[in-house]
């Protein structure tokens, strides 16, 4: 099964996609995670992407689409995948439809105040890509998964968060209507604990299999 996780930054797409990968074997394809890896490597794609990511802007469509197209050609995605953070523009959605068969779109929803709380308290591991809320950490500087250093992402600073939410409303939210019209979109309210939210999402996946 091939799934798209839609929803604003900070709603929990990455966390839920990573649990789905672990428990259901759906391969998590996180465009943000892929870009941050390029950033760390300092390669050409990383250099192009850095300024956009730091400013909370979207990386140009052409760059992202080629990156996802290439990733979906890899063997491990053939048994099903979950797209986390892609598509984010109408053009990306149109292009995706040309090279992928998507079975289900899950739109994760949460009120903006809760999102801002989540993002501003978020700490990220640049090594394993895990993200954790400060309130859940005994040691705010060390990744509980891999032991590397945790940092606050530049794009999780308050002024950038506000901008990312604006960008989401302008460029990504119109996808909800697009997929609703196509008839394969389900909304999941993610206002519970991680496990509760995952169970809600799992129910939707099972009902649509
Ligand atoms: P995320 O980790 O999904 O919040 O992504 C972090 C940043 O990577 C975003 O704020 C964008 O700058 C960039 N990015 C990730 N996915 C996309 C995409 N599908 N289109 C454009 N930019 C993206």
Structural account:
By secondary structure, the protein is of the alpha/beta class. It has a single domain (2-26, 80-207), classed as Rossmann fold. Helices cover 50% and strands 16% of the residues. The chain has nine helices and eight strands. Strand 5 (122-125) and strand 6 (131-133) form a beta hairpin. The N and C termini lie close together (7 Å).
Query: Helical segment tally?
Result: 9
What is the count of distinct domains?
1
Our estimate of the beta-strand percent is 15-25%
Query: Percent range for helical residues?
Result: 40-55%
Q: Biggest sheet: strands side by side, in what order?
A: 2-3-1-4-8
Question: Could you give a short account of the major beta sheet?
Answer: 5 strands, parallel
> Nearest-angstrom radius of gyration?
16 Å
Residue-averaged pLDDT, rounded?
95
Overall SS class: alpha/beta
Bound molecule types: adenosine monophosphate
Provide the CATH architecture: 3-Layer(aba) Sandwich
In CATH, the topology is named Rossmann fold
User: How do the SSEs run, as a string of H and E?
Assistant: EHEHHHEHEHEEEHHEH
CATH class: Alpha Beta
The total of beta strands comes to: 8
The parts where pLDDT drops under 50 for at least 5 residues are: none
Ends apart, CA distance between termini: 7 Å
């Amino acid at each position: 099964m091939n799934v798209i996780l839609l929803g604003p930054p900070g709603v929990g797409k990455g966390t839920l996609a990573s649990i789905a990968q672990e428990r259901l074997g759906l391969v998590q394809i996180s465009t943000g995670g892929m870009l941050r890896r390029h950033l760390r490597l300092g390669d050409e794609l990383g250099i192009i992407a850095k300024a956009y990511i730091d400013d909370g802007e979207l990386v140009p469509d052409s760059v992202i689409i080629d990156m996802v197209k290439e990733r979906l050609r890899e063997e491990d995605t053939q048994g099903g995948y979950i797209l986390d953070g892609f598509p984010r523009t109408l053009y990306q959605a149109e292009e995706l439809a040309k090279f992928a068969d998507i079975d289900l779109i899950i739109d994760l929803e949460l009120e903006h105040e809760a999102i801002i709380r989540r993002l501003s308290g978020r700490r990220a591991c640049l090594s394993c890509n895990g993200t954790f809320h400060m309130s859940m950490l005994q040691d705010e500087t060390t990744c509980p998964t891999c032991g590397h250093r945790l940092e606050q992402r530049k794009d999780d600073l308050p002024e950038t968060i506000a901008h990312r939410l604006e960008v989401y409303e302008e460029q990504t939210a119109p996808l909800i209507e697009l997929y609703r019209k196509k008839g394969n979109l389900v909304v999941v309210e993610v206002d519970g604990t991680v496990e509760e939210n995952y169970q809600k999402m799992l129910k939707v996946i099972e009902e649509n299999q």
